[in-house]
Design goal:
alpha+beta, two-stranded antiparallel ribbon, 35% helix, binds flavin-adenine dinucleotide
Length: 231
Amino acid sequence: MTGSAGRVVVVGGGHNGLVAAAYLAKAGHKPLVLERREVVGGAAVTEEIAPGFRVSALAHTAGPFLPGVAKDLDLARHGLELLSADPRLVALSPDGRAAAFHTDAQKTAAELARFSEKDAARYPELVGSLGRIAAVLAPLLTSTPPAVDSPSLGDLLGLGKLGNAFRKLPKRDAHRLLRWGPIGSTPRCCAPSSPRAESSGRSRGRGPPARRPRSFSRRPASRIPRAPPRT
Ligand SMILES: Cc1cc2nc3c(=O)[nH]c(=O)nc-3n(C[C@H](O)[C@H](O)[C@H](O)COP(=O)(O)OP(=O)(O)OC[C@H]3O[C@@H](n4cnc5c(N)ncnc54)[C@H](O)[C@@H]3O)c2cc1C
């Protein structure tokens, strides 16, 4: 920020930078977004990969797209339409085999069985576990981080709620959350030869898919200080 008017500079025009800038603009600021590429969008950018074929060039799903953000920014009016595909993705192997990942865990397990019976048997359990863990973590996406040095009553209540939700998890899920979260390792459900990297939506198979980086853009717009009136 510079000067008393507080000009806000957002470095990077990925979707988080753009959402943050949009909220800042709604709050009356005049953010300046600096993007080093010739297009904005970051990993969510739409590019023409072959003549006439425009696709999201990196991210393949909309992830935990918060309905509140879409509503606040009136994205439907700007043409946003979310489509869900089933199968959600297809993992290709160099040997010519492929596994489709469906919304239905049992259907996916049947695909995985062609690679590993063991993985197939454990896949539905993995999906169930991730769902329960994600439900505990989901509120974090829209909460302001607590003030670590001097937490307010609201901060403590929020942490208490989180702790309570954590305690209600089955013991096995609680253990997995603590293990998968910090170390970012691939859930140990899969044999080395199976398409586990693709199952987590990442190119090298590191980290469970439920974890997402937190970002400023997920703060409710009401928490952004209003810009001072212009004189
Ligand atoms: C291989 C892969 C697949 C993924 N698939 C998915 C998916 O399917 N669904 C999903 O929800 N998430 C997916 N993710 C995660 C998702 O891409 C990130 O969470 C998301 O891109 C973060 O958005 P962002 O705006 O913070 O950063 P980015 O999208 O990384 O955008 C950062 C922007 O900043 C610009 N920039 C960087 N440095 C500078 C600088 N110094 N000056 C100016 N500009 C700069 C970059 O050019 C870029 O445009 C995937 C990630 C990877 C790596």
